[in-house]
């Protein structure tokens, strides 16, 4: 990328690569401009490397013996082995797979909940005229601001009265009640972009709202649903606070809760195992990143999700 | 799809009466799960938490009404005051720095740069992983006394230190972790930059405006709604940070309370010592602080945010 010439740059500028609407100006030939481009690329490459260096270090460390990790920051390939992975997998009370499975179950539950409840609410806010719509929409946006710490105590009391502590329900049930207002907002924005003529046509054919929602809107809002699913995956996989509070028994631990115990005194010297299991617990996120990037970037640009 | 569409929606005129509310029944059916959630999971608990904040409550005995005692105690509690200072320092440092970096990088990446999508992916990746326990654990090792940072400093003959065990630098490492996740606001800025019509830049160039002037007079005003949107959200998120401080300090908020975020102190009091009343009172103060910051943000926005329409 540092061998850019004006001619090649022009060729790529005229190609299919640029997204529509992106402003661009044809590169002017000339040494100064080229030098500026080189500096820019050098800067960006350096920054990119700096940004991902900790991650690369994490990965290489996970294949090196614990006592070597902190001796040498270089990324040497000698002495690599999978020992850390087998050690780390069995270092805690249960095999690490149990915790990963718990996380996966939780993720599936929260995705199902968000897709179901947020799409219903979004349809009402985006398409239906009803009393109190403005007020309720304002309340919905307002709840985005609400810190979870304000509601966690009463929620905890509620779920403990229902005898649901140490189950996944306190973490999954709220998702079926559209408590992630952000996704309602994302879907409302998306549905507004669907032409109303389609609804009207279905209505003339005698379809009611449930039918319009299921047959017209839902199939057209698949991109918004995918974005919601991906972000719910990331949020639930990364969530720590809620899981820390509701899942205290070891057999219910999720991957983040289990990872944390590598920091406890008894296992504190098992750096290799800790790094290896950290890599494993980041792997699903990385795969989502690889395959879901298109939706991720679009979703962020639309709503500003973290 | 405008990022600020939801906010603008609120100021749209109400529908006419008569035919206006013809969908009442269907709407409330569609909204049923959300309404249930608002009552049971969100607004209900907010109100209960307000009540609990005036009580002494340990989960086993019924709440004992004590009036304003929790609030009085709080403002004489050095740990709580320290936690407010830590939280405010964190928000005031990490949010502007992160947004400035995000905007700078978005500017660099704009204008059809070659390799844009690769850079964007690499720079975005940390913001996806940054909230995880695994990365917080990694951070502990990177900034530990035998960590990556000190090894690098050692190459240049600089004596490193335990960045996380030193009360004056521990919070800084968490601020850095937040800045490291600048990728998602950067992506929002990139999308915003794309919507600025090219003709403005052309006109400015014809008028002889230098790049810095074009940035100040074209980019900044036209991007200001998006900067504002990012600012509001990032401030709200930053106040709620918990995981990083919990992991980096092993749940203690140490050393010397230097990473004791208010959220962490709420957790320790509520779920460590079961002072649920006191925890609720602190959570309410946190809510009021977040709301105040958001309100000030909205109020201040009229002086610098520019709407094209």
From TrEMBL, chain A:
Subcellular location: Cell membrane
Listed InterPro entries: MetI-like, MetI-like_sf
Its membrane topology: Multi-pass membrane protein
Region of interest (Disordered), ranges: 1-33
Pfam families (alphabetical): BPD_transp_1
Residue intervals passing through the bilayer: 42-60, 99-123, 135-159, 171-191, 212-234, 271-291
Protein name listed in UniProt: Carbohydrate ABC transporter permease
Automatic annotation (TrEMBL), chain B:
Transmembrane parts of this sequence: 26-52, 88-109, 121-139, 170-193, 220-239, 279-300
Protein name per the record: Sugar ABC transporter permease
Keywords: Cell membrane, Membrane, Transmembrane, Transmembrane helix, Transport
Pfam families: BPD_transp_1 (PF00528)
Top-rank taxon, per record: Bacteria
Lineage: Bacteria, Bacillati, Actinomycetota, Actinomycetes, Kitasatosporales
InterPro entries: ABC_transporter_permease (IPR051393), MetI-like (IPR000515), MetI-like_sf (IPR035906)
Family, per entry: Belongs to the binding-protein-dependent transport system permease family.
Cellular localization per UniProt: Cell membrane
Domain ABC transmembrane type-1: from-to ranges: 84-297
Annotated membrane topology: Multi-pass membrane protein
């Amino acid at each position: 990328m540092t061998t850019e010439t004006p001619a090649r740059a022009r060729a790529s500028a005229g190609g299919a690569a640029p997204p529509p609407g992106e402003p661009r100006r044809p590169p002017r030939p000339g040494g100064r401009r080229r030098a500026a481009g080189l500096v820019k690329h050098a800067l960006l490459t350096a920054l990119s490397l700096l940004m991902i260096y900790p991650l690369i270090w994490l990965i290489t460390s996970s294949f090196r013996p614990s006592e070597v990790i902190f001796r040498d920051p270089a990324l040497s390939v000698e002495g690599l082995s999978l020992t850390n992975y087998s050690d780390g997998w069995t270092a805690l009370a249960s095999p690490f797979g149990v915790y990963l499975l718990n996380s996966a179950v939780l993720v599936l539950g929260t995705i199902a909940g968000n897709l179901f409840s947020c799409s219903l609410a979004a349809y009402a806010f985006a398409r239906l005229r009803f009393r109190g719509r403005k007020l309720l929409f304002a309340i919905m946006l307002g709840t985005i601001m609400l810190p979870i710490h304000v509601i966690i105590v009463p929620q905890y009391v509620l779920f403990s009265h229902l005898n649901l502590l140490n189950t996944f329900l306190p973490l999954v049930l709220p998702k079926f009640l559209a408590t992630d207002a952000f996704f309602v907002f994302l879907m409302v924005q998306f549905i507004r972009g669907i032409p109303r003529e389609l609804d009207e046509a279905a209505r003339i054919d005698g379809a009611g709202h449930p039918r319009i929602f299921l047959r017209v809107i839902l199939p057209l809002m698949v991109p918004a649903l995918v974005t919601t699913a991906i972000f719910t995956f990331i949020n639930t996989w990364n969530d720590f606070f809620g899981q820390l509070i509701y899942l205290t028994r070891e057999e219910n631990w999720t991957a983040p809760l289990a990872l944390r115990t590598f920091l406890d005194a008894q296992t504190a010297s098992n750096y290799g195992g800790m790094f290896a299991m950290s890599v494993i617990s980041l792997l699903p996120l990385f795969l989502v990143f690889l395959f879901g990037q298109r939706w991720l970037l679009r979703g962020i640009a639309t709503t500003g999700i973290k | 799809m405008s990022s600020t569409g939801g906010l603008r929606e609120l100021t749209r005129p109400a529908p006419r009466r008569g035919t206006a509310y013809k969908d009442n029944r269907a709407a409330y059916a569609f909204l049923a799960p959300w309404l249930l959630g608002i009552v049971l999971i969100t607004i209900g608990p907010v109100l209960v938490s307000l009540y609990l904040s005036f009580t002494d409550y340990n989960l086993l005995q019924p709440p004992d009404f004590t009036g304003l005692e929790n609030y009085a105690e709080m403002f004489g509690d050095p740990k709580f005051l320290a936690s407010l200072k830590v939280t405010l320092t964190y928000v005031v440092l990490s949010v502007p720095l992160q947004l400035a970096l995000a905007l700078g990088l978005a500017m660099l990446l704009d204008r059809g740069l070659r390799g844009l999508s690769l850079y964007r992916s690499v720079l975005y990746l940390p913001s996806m992983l940054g909230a995880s326990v695994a990365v917080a654990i990694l951070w502990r090792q990177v900034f530990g006394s035998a960590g990556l940072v000190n090894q690098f400093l050692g190459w240049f003959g600089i004596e490193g230190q335990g960045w996380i065990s030193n009360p004056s630098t521990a919070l800084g490492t968490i601020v850095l972790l937040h800045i490291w996740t600048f990728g998602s606001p950067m992506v929002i800025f990139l999308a915003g930059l794309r919507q600025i019509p090219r003709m403005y830049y052309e006109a400015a160039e014809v008028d002889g405006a230098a790049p810095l002037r074009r940035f100040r007079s074209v980019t900044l005003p036209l991007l200001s709604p998006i900067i504002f949107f990012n600012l509001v959200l990032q401030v709200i998120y930053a106040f709620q940070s918990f995981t990083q401080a919990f992991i980096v300090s092993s749940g203690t908020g140490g050393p010397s309370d230097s990473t004791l975020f208010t959220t962490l102190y709420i957790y320790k009091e509520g779920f460590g010592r079961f002072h649920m009343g006191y925890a609720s009172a602190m959570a309410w103060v946190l809510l009021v602080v977040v709301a105040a910051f958001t309100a000030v943000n909205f109020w201040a926005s009229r002086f610098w945010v520019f709407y094209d329409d």
